[in-house]
Specification:
The chain is mainly α. The protein has helices spanning 3-6, 10-26, 34-46, 51-59, 72-86, 94-106, 114-125, 131-141. Helix 5 packs across helix 8 (131-141). The chain is globular and about 40 Å long. The mean pLDDT is 86.
Length: 146
């Protein structure tokens, strides 16, 4: 067994925390439906989450601490994943929009731009989006980059 298997990297821990955040959003209604499960599997694969950790996160997502990404690109990617899960049903309710505001602030986006970011993200996810398009839309809504 390589030593890298014994000591998880910071990147892996960050990916695991991000995945747990997405699972928490999927479980807001106390269940994970088929669309959400499909997205979770795809994200776990993209984030290099092995099956045993995937199962553990699904069982107890609150056991994994939230971590804020450092770079602007990482914040955009996390906002994309979290927003995608939040609006997977394409139903922008007041509760979801309020949660999106808190997510964006928690990820480090400037509070002056939250309404523009939220509106751009919701409009984006009412279509069939991809990550690169999402980054461009949010960068336009958030001219103050950190």
């Amino acid at each position: 067994m390589p030593i890298s298997d014994l000591y998880p990297t910071g990147l892996h821990q960050q990916n695991l925390a991000h995945f747990a955040s997405i699972v928490r959003i999927a479980m807001l209604d106390d269940k994970i439906d088929e669309k959400e499960l499909k997205l979770l599997k795809r994200l776990a694969h993209r984030l290099d989450i092995p099956n045993h950790e995937y199962d553990a996160v699904l069982k107890k997502p609150n056991n994994y601490p939230m971590r804020s990404p450092v770079s602007y690109e990482e914040r955009l990617e996390e906002l994309y994943d979290l927003t995608k899960m939040l609006f997977i049903d394409r139903n922008p309710t007041i509760d979801k929009t309020s949660l999106l505001d808190r997510i964006a602030i928690g990820l480090g986006f400037h509070s002056r731009n939250i309404i523009a970011i939220r509106n751009a993200a919701i409009q984006f996810f009412l279509k069939e989006p991809d990550l690169d398009d999402f980054k461009e839309v949010i960068k336009k809504a958030n001219p103050i980059q950190h």
